[in-house]
């Protein structure tokens, strides 16, 4: 209400940072049922808020399309500016020998890294299923899962699946130390199952030069382009197969990692993104 008053009486332009549809996320998280009375009511309020803005900045083309198609926002009001990354901080070749010893990581296995929230919506349940399939075929792989919350929950699940020896859970990581921790990886994974939300961790993976496996969604394809490796959405077997493919093909992994680093520097550095904004 205050924003509308400011716009009307102070003639102050309103710029809206749109990170995704609230109603869509509520449905994805099982708080609302799509098509229900409450869903329609909340969507109407959301659309009204969206239309009140003079300009809307979105972090993906998919979000821009969503606003045009579902909220009937005029095209000239929407500006797609993807997220960015500090490519000077997030870069390959950090010293990791001491950290490897601290975490007691195996020296003779390839390391797959994940850094982010630990919950079902981020695909962690699916990832653990995929690890179960993968380690039956390939024992020379270890997963470094970094983040929170629900650490103890997923440790327990890993024990139940008998894959706990294939995983190191670190818990919460200081963001300032993220580049060093990500440097431990030979490749990265982001099994986020949302079709519409942005996937910010991918920018860090890219800048680190990490070949990356994700689910096939419009958002992930826009960020990674032709240099990503895509599994079928919410399919743990497909995720395991794509990880195995990269682990078995070192030259491909190295080439993809190099291309992703170049993509991050050329298109997603804060300098580049700042100019677009």
Automatic annotation (TrEMBL):
Pfam families with a match to the protein in the record: Glycos_transf_1
Record carries keyword Cytoplasm: no
Keywords: Transferase
Biological process (GO), any one: lipopolysaccharide biosynthetic process
Molecular function terms from GO: glycosyltransferase activity
Domain Glycosyl transferase family: 98-262
Protein name: Glycosyl transferase family 1 domain-containing protein
Organism per entry: marine sediment metagenome
Lineage per the UniProt record: unclassified sequences, metagenomes, ecological metagenomes
């Amino acid at each position: 209400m205050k924003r509308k008053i400011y716009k009307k009486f102070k003639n102050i332009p309103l710029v809206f940072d749109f990170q995704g549809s609230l109603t869509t996320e509520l449905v994805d998280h099982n708080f609302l049922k799509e098509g229900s009375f409450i869903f329609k009511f909340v969507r109407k309020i959301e659309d009204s808020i969206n239309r009140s803005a003079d300009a809307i900045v979105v972090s993906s083309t998919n979000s821009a399309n969503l606003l045009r198609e579902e909220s009937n926002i005029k095209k000239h009001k929407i500006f797609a500016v993807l997220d960015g990354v500090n490519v000077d901080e997030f870069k390959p070749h950090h010293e990791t020998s001491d950290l490897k010893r601290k975490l007691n990581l195996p020296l003779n296995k390839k390391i797959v890294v994940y850094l982010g929230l630990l919950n079902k919506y981020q695909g962690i349940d699916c990832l653990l299923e995929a690890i179960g399939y993968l380690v039956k075929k390939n024992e020379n792989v270890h997963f470094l899962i970094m983040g929170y919350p629900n650490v103890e929950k997923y440790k327990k699940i890993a024990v139940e699946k008998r894959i706990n020896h294939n995983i190191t859970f670190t818990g919460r990581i200081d963001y300032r130390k993220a580049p060093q921790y990500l440097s431990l990886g030979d490749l990265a994974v982001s099994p986020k199952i949302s079709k519409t939300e942005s996937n910010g961790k991918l920018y860090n993976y890219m800048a680190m030069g990490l070949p990356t496996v994700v689910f096939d969604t419009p958002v992930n394809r826009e960020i990674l382009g032709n240099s990503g490796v895509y599994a079928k959405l919410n399919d743990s077997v497909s995720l395991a197969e794509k990880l195995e493919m990269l682990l078995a093909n070192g030259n491909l992994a190295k080439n993809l990692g190099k291309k992703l680093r170049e993509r991050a520097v050329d298109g997603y550095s804060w300098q580049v993104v700042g100019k677009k904004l």
